[in-house]
Amino acid sequence: MNEILLGTDGLNLNQLAAIARFGARVGLTLESINAIVKARDVVDSWIREGKIIYGITTGFGALSDRIISAADTSQLQQNILMSHAAGVGDTLDEATVRAVIALRVNDMARGNSGIGLEAVELLIELLNRGVCPVVPEKGSVGASGDLAPLAHLALVLIGSGEAFCQGHRLPGDVALSRSGLRPVQLRAAEGLALVNGTQVSCAIGALALIDSLRLSRTADIAASMSLEVLMGSRTEFDRRIHRLRPHPGQISAADNMERITRNSEIVSSHKDCSRIQDAYTLRCSPQVHGAGKDAIRYAKGVLEIEMNSSTNNPLILAETREFLLGGNFHGQPLALALDFLCMAVSEFANISERRIERLVNPQLSGLPAFLVKNGGLNSGFMIAQYTAAALVSENKTLSHPACVDSIPTSANKEDHVSMSPISARKLREVVKNTEYVIAIELLCAAQAMDLFTNLRPGEGTRAAYAVIRGAVPHLEEDRVLAKDIETLTGLVKSGEILKAVENAVGPLG
Questions:
Q1: How far is CA 222 from CA 261, 282, 294, 396, in A?
Q2: Each residue's pLDDT tens digit, 269-298
Q3: Which of 144, 225, 396, 409 keeps 20 to 30 A from 32, CA to CA?
Q4: Mean of pLDDT values over 70-98
Q5: pTM over 0.90
Q6: Of the residues 54, 298, 386, 436, which is catalytic?
């Protein structure tokens, strides 16, 4: 895998995923190296001049009126890491921590933080040598940056904290030593530069967004399979309908589902049936799925800007030898976008669960009760629908926006905070829950499709069905369904079903 160079050109979502999930190596562009060195030289000159600069020669937050002597500036930077490492809860997974490091380096690569090249290069070596700092996921309010989790991450750079290395959880200094690395001695501004940013919120949100992009297209596949076996109509995908209400996501969803169900003998077999219109979960699926796609598009735009922004305070402008005090560390843009995305992904699960109910309910489907023979002796997919209902209900609770809350911190100096990491973690859980729900719909739809033995499904649904049946057999009589659900969820997560369908009908939007 080619090395990904971070600099001022911008990092995209595919590159972030390659670093976070697939171990891509990272480096700095020459332009970025020069920018970092130049900004650091300016900071060093200010220290020699005795300039009073927030966080560099002063305390932090409500203690910013305390002047720090030149002799104590290094200790100040170590102290901020130790005092701010107050996180609690489960540790972030390795992929998320790698994404955080990549985003933090990408921010510093712009040359606005004042950090020295040695510290940035050590962060890069953590990625390239597989050293993963132990980072508790709770404790940030998403303003003044994600202070607590970033402090835990940065402790490893000074040989403190903990890190996973070579399959073991080790003290930070031991992890560095085993990887052939040495800790850095922090200089003025560097401790603050390491903790002052939105990268934890952004990393969790960006990885969840990547999963949401795949999930939105997989939801179209599941809905298409359900529509076929529930004897729905393809009329609702007619392009003329959606041109008259031209939301981009709606048009995309309808186009996807039209192509997925194309040449379906199941759909064409009931063109003269007596049903006037389909239920909303079928007929309005392009509108509901499409609105979710538009929300994803909005969130993607916000995250791509945030990934390639300078979020420190102060911001160093080396060209003009100025520093600016501001609030780019405030996570409000992320919090709003991630809460919106959380609600959108919840709706994919919400409408999917209602289609699952139609599939297992003989009064709505005309199919055998709970999609199994010998009902009574066998319960079939009865409890799979319960599981989907439980996950959907949990999603509704998680979809309450975190961004509308604020608790003042730092003796009311930081009197409005974003709660963006909470927005991001809620989104992550909603995406996981929704992957399970979509997997259950795919299981049920494939089971129902087995009943149409003499009729060929649509081009895309046929491809999806083949992947499903390649991994999970038809349910002839009751068996433990948990394993089947996990297997299908794995196919949803990996994109294997999506890839097969796109190979059959072309890229989905």
A1: 11, 11, 19, 21
A2: 556 555 668 899 999 999 999 999 999 999
A3: 144
A4: 91
A5: yes
A6: 54
Look up 280 and say whether it is catalytic.
no
Selection from 32, 36, 80 nearest residue 54 by Cα: 80
Residues found in the chain? 509
Residue with tokens 């560095």: 176
What is the dihedral sign for C-alpha 242, 248, 254, 259?
positive
Contact 350, 389 (CB under 8 A): no
Closest by CA to 36, choosing from 145, 121, 103, 159, is 121
Residues 154 and 81 sit within 8 Å (Cβ to Cβ): yes
- Distance (Å, rounded) from C-alpha 137 to C-alpha 91? 5
Of 3.30.1330.10, 1.10.357.10, 1.10.275.10, 1.10.10.60, the CATH number of 4-197 is 1.10.275.10
CATH 1.20.200.10 region(s) of the chain?
Answer: 204-311+329-505
Class (C level, CATH) for 204-311+329-505: mainly alpha
Q: Residue 283: which H helix or E strand, with range?
A: helix 280-283
CB contact set of 386 (below 8 Å; sequence gap of 6+):
none
Neighbours of 335 (CB within 10 A): 29
What's the sign of the alpha-carbon dihedral 446, 395, 87, 328?
positive
